[in-house]
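FAQ

Q: What does a record look like?
A: Structure on top, sequence underneath. For example:
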């Protein structure tokens, strides 16, 4: 039996842990997806969001940032009735706003990937935590990323959300040392 990080005990967490979490991601569409999902997760469990991931994919045009940036009040009303996602007006408005800001970053840095990965000098940080309780909720880097994103007009991007984003897209590898996905 494979040893995993303590939080990966059931589906859909196991599949997500084994196939995605902590793997370096450089595709802007995937980075936008995780930005939306991490913002939606605020105050909820990650498992809740994973169970609704397909709903988010459908509701947010397969995470096409250009399409999401053009969502209107009509889209928002429809999303607020969509039971396949978290129907929180602030989070929905945030996703649309963040799509607009994401496009500005793509224009400035040629990709969101170029922008976000510069915070870790384009190389994943490999931590050596023994247990889940050792993992921080925020770091100095996630605080800097949060401040910069907020300065650029993003919302639902506090330091904890930014650190979770960094973990999800492999900017930091926080698999515990006993996990089969841990890399020395």
């Amino acid at each position: 039996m494979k040893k995993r990080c303590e939080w990966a005990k059931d589906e859909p967490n196991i599949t997500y842990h084994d196939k995605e979490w902590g793997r370096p991601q450089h595709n802007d569409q995937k980075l936008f997806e995780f930005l939306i999902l991490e913002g939606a997760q605020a105050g909820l469990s990650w498992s809740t969001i994973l169970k609704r991931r397909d709903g988010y994919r459908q509701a947010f045009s397969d995470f096409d940032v250009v399409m999401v940036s053009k969502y209107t009040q009509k889209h928002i009303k429809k999303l607020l009735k969509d039971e396949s996602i978290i129907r929180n007006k602030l989070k929905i408005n945030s996703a649309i706003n963040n799509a607009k800001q994401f496009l500005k970053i793509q224009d400035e840095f040629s990709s969101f990937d170029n922008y976000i990965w510069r915070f870790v000098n384009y190389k994943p940080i490999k931590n050596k935590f023994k247990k889940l309780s050792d993992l921080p909720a925020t770091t100095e880097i996630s605080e800097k990323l949060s401040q910069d994103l907020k300065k650029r007009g993003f919302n639902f991007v506090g330091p904890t959300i930014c650190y979770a984003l960094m973990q999800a897209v492999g900017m930091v590898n926080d698999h515990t040392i006993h996990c089969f996905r841990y890399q020395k």
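Q: Is there anything notable about this one?
A: The radius of gyration is 16 Å.
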